[in-house]
Protein backbone atom coordinates (compact mmCIF):
# COMPACT_ATOMS: atom_id res chain seq x y z
CA UNK A 1 0.00 0.00 0.00
CA UNK A 2 1.29 3.44 -0.91
CA UNK A 3 1.97 5.80 2.01
CA UNK A 4 -0.83 8.37 2.22
CA UNK A 5 0.10 12.05 2.44
CA UNK A 6 -2.48 14.54 3.68
CA UNK A 7 -2.07 18.02 2.18
CA UNK A 8 -3.81 20.73 4.21
CA UNK A 9 -3.94 24.11 2.45
CA UNK A 10 -6.74 26.49 1.50
CA UNK A 11 -4.94 27.39 -1.74
CA UNK A 12 -6.46 25.07 -4.35
CA UNK A 13 -3.59 25.64 -6.78
CA UNK A 14 -1.01 24.62 -4.16
CA UNK A 15 -3.01 21.49 -3.34
CA UNK A 16 -3.30 20.51 -6.99
CA UNK A 17 0.42 21.05 -7.55
CA UNK A 18 1.40 18.94 -4.53
CA UNK A 19 -1.12 16.26 -5.45
CA UNK A 20 0.29 15.99 -8.97
CA UNK A 21 3.92 15.94 -7.86
CA UNK A 22 3.54 13.52 -4.95
CA UNK A 23 1.27 11.16 -6.90
CA UNK A 24 4.04 10.70 -9.46
CA UNK A 25 6.12 9.06 -6.76
CA UNK A 26 5.19 6.35 -4.25
CA UNK A 27 2.42 8.27 -2.49
CA UNK A 28 -1.33 8.48 -2.47
CA UNK A 29 -2.46 12.02 -1.75
CA UNK A 30 -5.44 13.29 0.24
CA UNK A 31 -6.41 16.95 0.33
CA UNK A 32 -8.20 19.14 2.88
CA UNK A 33 -8.73 22.88 2.64
CA UNK A 34 -9.29 23.67 6.31
CA UNK A 35 -8.11 22.55 9.71
CA UNK A 36 -11.26 20.86 11.00
CA UNK A 37 -11.59 18.68 7.91
CA UNK A 38 -7.94 17.71 8.31
CA UNK A 39 -8.42 16.67 11.94
CA UNK A 40 -11.48 14.62 10.99
CA UNK A 41 -9.62 12.98 8.11
CA UNK A 42 -6.69 11.96 10.29
CA UNK A 43 -9.11 10.51 12.85
CA UNK A 44 -10.95 8.54 10.17
CA UNK A 45 -7.98 7.30 8.14
CA UNK A 46 -5.18 5.69 10.17
CA UNK A 47 -3.19 4.98 6.99
CA UNK A 48 -2.17 8.66 6.71
CA UNK A 49 1.61 8.60 7.09
CA UNK A 50 2.46 12.32 6.98
CA UNK A 51 0.73 15.70 6.97
CA UNK A 52 1.83 18.72 4.93
CA UNK A 53 0.22 21.50 6.95
CA UNK A 54 -0.19 25.13 5.92
CA UNK A 55 0.11 27.50 8.85
CA UNK A 56 -2.51 29.97 7.53
CA UNK A 57 -5.87 28.19 7.36
CA UNK A 58 -9.31 29.84 7.14
CA UNK A 59 -10.87 28.25 10.21
CA UNK A 60 -8.18 27.11 12.66
CA UNK A 61 -4.64 28.40 13.07
CA UNK A 62 -2.15 25.86 11.77
CA UNK A 63 -0.41 25.72 15.14
CA UNK A 64 -3.68 24.68 16.78
CA UNK A 65 -4.10 21.97 14.17
CA UNK A 66 -0.56 20.81 14.91
CA UNK A 67 -1.35 20.67 18.62
CA UNK A 68 -4.50 18.63 18.04
CA UNK A 69 -2.71 16.26 15.66
CA UNK A 70 -0.10 15.58 18.31
CA UNK A 71 -2.84 14.72 20.77
CA UNK A 72 -4.60 12.45 18.27
CA UNK A 73 -1.51 10.75 16.85
CA UNK A 74 1.73 11.77 18.57
CA UNK A 75 3.92 9.79 16.16
CA UNK A 76 2.38 11.26 12.99
CA UNK A 77 5.01 13.37 11.17
CA UNK A 78 3.98 16.93 10.31
CA UNK A 79 5.82 19.19 7.87
CA UNK A 80 4.77 22.84 8.01
CA UNK A 81 4.18 24.90 4.87
CA UNK A 82 4.97 28.53 5.62
CA UNK A 83 4.69 31.81 3.76
CA UNK A 84 6.59 35.04 4.07
CA UNK A 85 6.17 36.75 7.40
CA UNK A 86 5.41 33.58 9.39
CA UNK A 87 8.77 33.31 11.14
CA UNK A 88 7.25 33.26 14.60
CA UNK A 89 4.85 30.46 13.65
CA UNK A 90 7.76 28.37 12.38
CA UNK A 91 9.68 28.83 15.62
CA UNK A 92 6.67 27.88 17.73
CA UNK A 93 5.88 24.96 15.44
CA UNK A 94 9.39 23.58 15.77
CA UNK A 95 9.22 24.00 19.53
CA UNK A 96 5.92 22.10 19.52
CA UNK A 97 7.53 19.20 17.68
CA UNK A 98 6.87 19.70 13.96
CA UNK A 99 9.27 17.52 11.99
CA UNK A 100 10.26 20.08 9.38
CA UNK A 101 9.10 23.17 7.51
CA UNK A 102 9.13 24.28 3.90
CA UNK A 103 8.88 27.92 2.86
CA UNK A 104 6.63 29.16 0.09
CA UNK A 105 7.18 29.45 -2.79
CA UNK A 106 8.77 26.01 -2.89
CA UNK A 107 10.46 23.76 -5.40
CA UNK A 108 8.17 20.71 -5.84
CA UNK A 109 11.17 18.39 -6.11
CA UNK A 110 12.40 19.63 -2.76
CA UNK A 111 9.00 18.87 -1.21
CA UNK A 112 9.22 15.29 -2.47
CA UNK A 113 12.76 14.94 -1.14
CA UNK A 114 11.76 16.33 2.27
CA UNK A 115 8.72 14.06 2.52
CA UNK A 116 10.78 11.01 1.61
CA UNK A 117 13.48 11.95 4.12
CA UNK A 118 10.96 12.28 6.96
CA UNK A 119 9.27 8.99 6.07
CA UNK A 120 12.60 7.19 5.90
CA UNK A 121 13.43 8.45 9.37
CA UNK A 122 10.11 7.18 10.69
CA UNK A 123 10.53 3.80 8.98
CA UNK A 124 7.58 4.19 6.58
CA UNK A 125 9.89 4.20 3.56
CA UNK A 126 12.92 2.00 3.10
CA UNK A 127 16.17 3.54 1.94
CA UNK A 128 16.19 4.12 -1.81
CA UNK A 129 19.30 2.01 -2.36
CA UNK A 130 21.47 -0.21 -0.18
CA UNK A 131 24.49 1.61 1.18
CA UNK A 132 27.60 -0.62 1.11
CA UNK A 133 29.55 1.58 3.47
CA UNK A 134 28.81 4.65 5.51
CA UNK A 135 30.78 7.46 7.01
CA UNK A 136 30.22 7.74 10.72
CA UNK A 137 31.04 10.61 13.04
CA UNK A 138 31.44 9.45 16.62
CA UNK A 139 31.56 11.43 19.85
CA UNK A 140 31.22 10.34 23.47
CA UNK A 141 29.88 6.96 22.38
CA UNK A 142 27.34 8.47 19.99
CA UNK A 143 27.43 7.81 16.23
CA UNK A 144 26.08 10.13 13.54
CA UNK A 145 25.59 8.05 10.38
CA UNK A 146 25.99 10.51 7.52
CA UNK A 147 24.78 8.08 4.85
CA UNK A 148 21.50 7.24 6.54
CA UNK A 149 21.13 10.56 8.38
CA UNK A 150 20.68 8.68 11.65
CA UNK A 151 21.95 9.20 15.18
CA UNK A 152 22.68 6.28 17.52
CA UNK A 153 23.21 6.61 21.26
CA UNK A 154 25.97 4.78 23.18
CA UNK A 155 23.63 1.77 23.52
CA UNK A 156 23.17 1.70 19.72
CA UNK A 157 19.57 2.82 19.93
CA UNK A 158 18.45 5.07 17.09
CA UNK A 159 17.52 8.58 18.20
CA UNK A 160 15.10 10.22 15.73
CA UNK A 161 16.23 13.53 14.24
CA UNK A 162 14.34 15.95 12.08
CA UNK A 163 16.11 17.14 8.95
CA UNK A 164 16.91 20.44 10.61
CA UNK A 165 18.32 18.76 13.71
CA UNK A 166 20.43 16.42 11.61
CA UNK A 167 21.84 19.25 9.49
CA UNK A 168 22.75 21.32 12.53
CA UNK A 169 24.35 18.41 14.38
CA UNK A 170 26.35 17.55 11.27
CA UNK A 171 27.60 21.14 10.99
CA UNK A 172 28.58 21.21 14.66
CA UNK A 173 30.39 17.87 14.64
CA UNK A 174 32.23 18.68 11.43
CA UNK A 175 33.51 21.83 13.14
CA UNK A 176 34.10 20.43 16.62
CA UNK A 177 35.99 22.67 19.06
CA UNK A 178 35.36 25.66 16.78
CA UNK A 179 33.07 28.49 17.85
CA UNK A 180 30.39 29.05 15.20
CA UNK A 181 28.23 32.15 15.05
CA UNK A 182 24.55 31.94 14.16
CA UNK A 183 25.37 33.34 10.72
CA UNK A 184 27.93 30.60 10.15
CA UNK A 185 25.49 27.93 11.28
CA UNK A 186 22.82 29.39 9.03
CA UNK A 187 25.21 29.16 6.11
CA UNK A 188 26.29 25.61 6.96
CA UNK A 189 22.72 24.35 7.35
CA UNK A 190 21.12 26.41 4.59
CA UNK A 191 18.49 24.68 2.45
CA UNK A 192 17.13 25.99 -0.82
CA UNK A 193 13.62 24.91 0.15
CA UNK A 194 13.07 26.92 3.29
CA UNK A 195 13.61 30.32 4.82
CA UNK A 196 16.27 30.04 7.49
CA UNK A 197 16.65 32.59 10.25
CA UNK A 198 18.42 33.17 13.56
CA UNK A 199 15.77 31.87 15.93
CA UNK A 200 15.51 28.57 14.06
CA UNK A 201 19.08 27.83 15.13
CA UNK A 202 18.25 28.48 18.78
CA UNK A 203 15.22 26.19 18.65
CA UNK A 204 17.17 23.38 16.99
CA UNK A 205 20.02 23.75 19.50
CA UNK A 206 17.49 23.41 22.31
CA UNK A 207 15.99 20.29 20.74
CA UNK A 208 19.39 18.70 20.11
CA UNK A 209 20.41 19.30 23.72
CA UNK A 210 17.31 17.49 24.90
CA UNK A 211 18.35 14.49 22.83
CA UNK A 212 22.10 14.20 23.39
CA UNK A 213 22.94 15.99 26.63
CA UNK A 214 22.91 14.21 29.99
CA UNK A 215 21.62 17.48 31.44
CA UNK A 216 20.19 19.82 28.78
CA UNK A 217 20.21 22.71 31.26
CA UNK A 218 23.97 22.32 31.82
CA UNK A 219 25.16 21.21 28.38
CA UNK A 220 28.56 19.57 28.08
CA UNK A 221 28.51 18.92 24.33
CA UNK A 222 26.82 21.91 22.69
CA UNK A 223 27.93 24.94 24.66
CA UNK A 224 26.84 28.54 24.31
CA UNK A 225 29.65 31.06 23.99
CA UNK A 226 27.96 34.27 25.06
CA UNK A 227 28.04 36.93 22.39
CA UNK A 228 29.74 34.65 19.87
CA UNK A 229 27.63 31.59 19.16
CA UNK A 230 27.92 27.87 19.87
CA UNK A 231 30.70 25.31 20.06
CA UNK A 232 30.64 21.51 19.92
CA UNK A 233 32.91 21.05 22.92
CA UNK A 234 34.14 17.49 22.58
CA UNK A 235 36.41 15.51 20.29
CA UNK A 236 34.93 13.65 17.33
CA UNK A 237 36.30 10.94 15.07
CA UNK A 238 35.44 10.07 11.49
CA UNK A 239 35.33 6.42 10.51
CA UNK A 240 34.13 4.32 7.60
CA UNK A 241 32.36 1.12 8.51
CA UNK A 242 30.49 -1.64 6.83
CA UNK A 243 26.73 -1.25 6.74
Automatic annotation (TrEMBL):
Coiled coil: none annotated. One of its GO terms (cellular component) is protein-DNA complex. Signal peptide: none annotated. Residues 4-119 form the Response regulatory domain. Keywords: Cytoplasm, DNA-binding, Phosphoprotein, Transcription, Transcription regulation, Two-component regulatory system. This is DNA-binding dual transcriptional regulator OmpR. The keyword Transmembrane does not apply. Pfam families: Response_reg (PF00072), Trans_reg_C (PF00486).
Amino acid sequence: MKPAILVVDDDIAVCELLQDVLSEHVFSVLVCHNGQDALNRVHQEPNIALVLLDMMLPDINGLQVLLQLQKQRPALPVVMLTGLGSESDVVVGLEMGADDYIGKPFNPRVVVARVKAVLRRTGVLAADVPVPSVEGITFNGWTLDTARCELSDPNRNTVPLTQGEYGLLLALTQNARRVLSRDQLLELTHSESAEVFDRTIDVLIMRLRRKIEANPHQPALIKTIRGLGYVFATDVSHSEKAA
